[in-house]
From TrEMBL:
Domain C-methyltransferase: 236-393
Enzyme class: transferase
SUPFAM superfamilies referenced in this protein's UniProt entry, alphabetically: S-adenosyl-L-methionine-dependent methyltransferases
Source domain of life: Bacteria
Protein name: Class I SAM-dependent methyltransferase
Organism of origin: Streptomyces millisiae
Ranges where the Methyltransferase putative zinc binding domain occurs: 4-59
Any Gene Ontology biological process: methylation
One GO MF term: methyltransferase activity
EC numbers, comma separated: 2.1.1.-
InterPro entries attached to this UniProt entry: Methyltransf_Zn-bd_dom_put, Methyltransf_Zn-bd_dom_put_sf, MeTrfase_14, SAM-dependent_MTases_sf
Keyword set, alphabetical order: Methyltransferase, Transferase
Amino acid sequence: MSRCRVCSAAVREFLDFGRQPLSSAFRSPGETAEEFRFRLAVGICESCTMVQLLEEVPQARRAHQGYPYHSSGSVVMREHFERTARRLLSTELSGGDPLFVEIGCNDGVVLGTVAAAGVRQLAFEPSGEAAGRVHRAFFDAASAREVRAAEGPADVVYAANTLCDVADIAAVLQGAEVLLAPDGVLVFEDPYLGEIIERTSFDQIYDEHFYYFTARSVLAMARRSGFDLVDVEHLPVHGGQIRYTLARAGRRPPTAAVAELLAEEEARRLTAPETLDGFAATVGTIRTDLVKLLGRLTEEGHRLVGYGATAKSSTVLNYCGIGPELVPVVCDSTPSKQGRLTPGAGIPVVPPQAFSAPYPDYAVLFAWNHAEEIMAKERAFREAGGRWILYVPDVHIV
């Protein structure tokens, strides 16, 4: 039986996606070495209700020199992170000589905005392509102690789409306890289980996301490490996230938003067995419907492509058994992915120019969380008669 990585209680499995590759392991066409795979299954702790993967991929395999995601590649995400930085500058970083620390800065949108305001900043980022003033180490008590000795205490430790990745999350909270000033805060935003279930956005479950947070599970986790959950905020990005704010126990009163979200989760029975089992059943239906649709369109002679070689697409393609025979290519704007093959499924990734040369009949939108931005950019595709295929919250054509 699996044990919870937060509290060591038993974990009940409710969904198994089978053997999956690393979602960022895009291979060269000539590679012959066997791909690393792991069992992508998810369960819930029967005590603290933390939803988590049952098998951990070693962190060193996931954060590497060729890590391909860049926040600034999306206008929506770049603007989101710039707004986030400006908000923190006006609230938590407005005192004398504050220090801002980011865990996982990626290409440095938040860090750069903070630096431009003249505020001291530093990031913990093991990925080789990170930008900004970087301490190249994983964030834990030891590395936090090194930075505190050199820089002093931090007013804000911030992370976006990072804390949910770290199986040993207790080490992160220990690092925050070491590095934060007495009234400092740990602020992090990650995919919200409530949105994943409501939208049936099952493809948000992949190797790089070990945890799927709720207010209830974050509160339990925080209290185990001497913190309080003092604020929550719904975010529309990446298919629905929550921004959580933790402070040292007793230093700040929780906002009304915390109690409201906890009550909402209880009313929805968000982590009840019947809710999670129902979610799993719906995911199975989506798999059947998507494969059937792609197979029918292919048999009818239509030309199909994928749009967005996202980490999420790895779960979809490998869980559904979709390969080049159904989706011959995937168009993506990330140069490091172009000319390579999607993990596991082996579908060639081509640059976005190939999308219009000529336009396909149908495009599977794997980057559905950027649907509005993409569809506006690719208006000519629709005008040429093209149709989008989406599978969240169900399989449909637009």
